[in-house]
Amino acid sequence: MSPKELLYIEDALGHAKQIKTVCTDFSNQLSDSELSNFVQDIAKKQQQTFDRIYNLL
């Protein structure tokens, strides 16, 4: 894997982690439980994306 490809993967992992963190934080601030659950599901999917990319390495 070239250094440029590795940087791209690191960037993608960082974005997935950041989106998960933002969604988790936002979900905890919501008073609407249905909307909070929806945002929490997005956070879980981002964690799955992170895990899949990481496991490919």
How do the helices and strands line up, and which of them pair or pack?
Blueprint: H1 3-29, H2 33-56
Helix pairs in contact: 1-2
Provide a quick synopsis of the model.
With 57 residues, this protein is mainly alpha-helical.
Question: What kind of assembly state do the chains in view correspond to?
Answer: single chain
Q: Averaged pLDDT, please?
A: 94
Roughly how many Å apart are the termini? 10 Å
Q: Level of helix content? A: over 70%
Low-confidence stretches: none
The shape, in one word, is elongated
The main pleated sheet reads as: none
H-E string: HH
Radius of gyration: 14 Å
> What is the count of β-strands?
0
Beta-strand level of the residues, as a percent range? under 5%
Question: What structural class do you assign from the helix and strand content?
Answer: mainly alpha
Number of helical stretches of at least 4 residues: 2
